[in-house]
Amino acid sequence: MIKSPSDTLLRSILHSSTSFACVGVSPNPVRPSHYVARYLALKGFRVTPVNPVHAGTMLFGRLVAGTLLEIRYPVDVVDIFRRPTAVPGIVEEALQLDPLPSVIWMQIGVTHAEAAAKAEAAGLIVIQNRCPKIEYQRLFGELRMGGFATGVISSKL
Fold first, then answer.
1. Is residue 93 domain-resident?
2. 157 within some domain
3. CA 38, CA 34: separation in Å to the nearest integer?
4. Has residue 143 got a pLDDT over 70?
5. Using an 8 Å Cβ cutoff, are 22 and 48 in contact?
6. pLDDT, tens digit, for every residue of 67-123?
7. Distance from C-alpha of 79 to C-alpha of 114, rounded to nearest angstrom
8. Across the beta sheet with 125-127, what order do the strands follow?
9. Distance between CA 12 and CA 88 in Å, rounded?
10. Is a pLDDT exceeding 60 seen at residue 148?
11. Model pTM score
C-alpha cells in the first residue's frame, strides 16, 4: 500500500527544494515529462533533464545528462518519468550521488515498493504516483475549477 503524503509534506518539499533531476524527460513538447519539467523550470527550479538518448543536447537552457551520475551539483529531487521496472536502477544511481538528494518523486502511474523502501531506508523521502506540477498548482493556488489554470481573469461564466 502506497502511503499518501500529507499536503504539509508536499508543500514543504516544493517550498524548500531548488533543483530537480527529471529522469526520462522528453524533448517532445506534447509529452508530460516535457511540460512538467518546463513548468518546474519556469517556476524557478534548477531542472536538469536526464535522458541517455538525448544526452549532450540542450533542453530548458540546460545540458541533458545521460545519467544522474553525470550531474555535478547537488540535486534536491529526483523526479522519475520512467516505467516502474526502471525505478530500481534509478534509485541505485540516486543513492550514489554525493550529496544524496532529499526526495525520490515518482510520477503519476509510477510506483515501486522495493525501490521506495530502499530509498527510505537511506533517509530519502519518497513520493509515488504524484506529479509535482499538479501538486504545486494545487497547493499554491494555481489550479482552477476543472483542473485548468487558464490565466484568464473574467467575471463572465
1. yes
2. no
3. 6
4. no
5. yes
6. 999 999 999 999 999 999 999 999 999 999 999 999 999 999 999 999 999 999 999
7. 17
8. 46-50, 19-23, 77-80, 103-106, 125-127
9. 25
10. no
11. 0.89
Mean pLDDT of 35-62: 96
Residues in the chain: 157
Q: Which domain holds residue 31?
A: 7-147
CA distances 68 to 1, 49, 74, 118, Å, are 28, 9, 11, 17
pLDDT given at position 155:
46
pLDDT at residue 1 in the model: 62
Number of domains in the chain: 1
| Residue 17 near residue 77, CB atoms below 8 Å | yes
Residue 150 — very low, low, confident or very high, per pLDDT cuts 50/70/90?
Answer: low
Cα–Cα dist 106/128, whole Å: 5
Greatest Cα pair distance in the chain: 54
Q: Which residues contact 63 (CB under 8 A, 6 or more apart)?
A: 56, 57
CATH of residue 68: 3.40.50.720
Report yes or no on 156 lying in a domain. no
| Structure-block grid coordinates of residue 143 | 489550479
The answer as to whether 29 is a domain residue is yes
